[in-house]
Design brief:
Elements (H helix, E strand, L loop, with lengths): L1 H5 L5 H26 L2 H31 L6 H6 L7 H29 L7 H29 L2 H30 L8 H16 L4 H11 L5 H18 L3 E9 L2 E9 L9 H15 L6 E8 L7
């Protein structure tokens, strides 16, 4: 029962815990069998998986902090005082660091693959290599399918990134299995001279494919870290605010939006004629609630501030 709760596939943290456990298994297999088979590509697969474990642990920690912060009373007071604006900003940092590390590791492996090919390739124990690739491919595909199905309910960006990791790992392992199978078929034939080059060639091809894949993740993460305004959210808030101002006869508005991780930060200043500035506070609160409902997306990940002022300087 306790294990079922720990690996709850209907919860973001449970999914990430399950992924971490399976990734540790794949990483251990890769590093051990990479040494036994003499394959640099299998070792790269294991190291890649080990890196994925580290990043999944960081993702799990961030998810726990965000959930604890959005549920009152679940965060130590000292942390709440030090991070009074929440922990949403950690999510794009994790995504960006993850992408940069993946690019760096793949680039380093590509350099090693080229160096190995120039040195005459590597001698492989094909039985161990094929066995590893087959078992690992089954695990990777199964994990990708399980997380895709589960994340339809959870809707987590961190789990989505983890799914990409399993899909990429499936691609790597599938390519390894195909290459090792080809090497096994040509071993002892007139094409036997190609066998030592199979490992560095497939490693190089995999790295060339992998290097560009995290670029969009890094770009999006940097956009959120730098608070680049998302156009769709900006246009939605502006349209809703303009309609609100027109209906109530106010002088205008200024809106400012940003997206950081799963959070949406929205600030709207409504410019009110001085003649109407004496309304009771309850009326302003009712108007604030009306605009907030029109903007939508109410929940723990929406940070909404609506201010009414008759002095436009406060809104600039």
């Amino acid at each position: 029962m306790a294990i079922g709760r720990f690996y709850d596939l209907g919860d973001e943290r449970g999914l990430l815990r399950f992924s971490i456990s399976m990734t540790i298994l794949v990483a251990t297999l890769g590093i051990l069998l990479g040494v036994l088979s003499g394959s640099f590509s299998i070792m790269f697969d294991g190291i890649y998986s080990l890196l994925d474990v580290v990043m999944s642990l960081m993702s799990l920690m961030v998810a726990k902090l965000i959930i604890a912060d959005t549920n009152a009373g679940n965060l130590p007071e000292k942390l709440r005082q030090r991070f009074s604006m929440g922990f949403w900003h950690l999510e794009p940092i994790v995504l960006g660091v993850n992408g940069i590390l993946l690019i760096s590791v793949a680039t380093y492996a590509l350099i090693n693959a080229i160096s190995s090919a120039l040195d005459g390739g590597t001698d492989l124990h094909l039985g161990a290599a094929i066995g590893y690739a087959a078992v690992t491919l089954v695990i990777c595909v199964a994990m990708a399918v399980v997380e895709v199905v589960a994340n339809r309910r959870v809707g987590s960006a961190l789990v989505s990134l983890d799914i990409q990791g399993w899909i990429m790992a499936s691609g790597i392992t599938g390519a390894l299995l195909a290459a090792f199978s080809i090497a096994w078929m040509i071993e002892g034939t007139q094409w036997n001279w190609m066998v030592p080059y199979i490992d560095p060639i497939i490693l190089g091809v995999v790295c060339i494919v992998l290097i560009p894949l995290p670029l969009k993740t890094v770009r999006d993460a940097l956009s959120e870290i730098l608070l680049v305004t998302p156009a769709d959210l900006r246009d939605h808030v502006a349209a809703v605010s303009a309609d609100f101002v027109e209906r109530h006869g106010f002088d205008g508005f200024r809106s400012y939006v940003s997206k950081v991780g799963r959070s949406r930060n929205i600030t709207v200043y409504v410019i009110v004629p001085e003649a109407e500035a004496t309304k009771p506070l309850a009326e302003w609160d009712a108007l604030r609630e009306e605009l907030g409902e029109a903007i939508g997306g109410k929940g723990p990940d929406r940070w909404l501030t609506i201010t009414f002022t008759s002095d436009i300087i406060w809104a600039e």
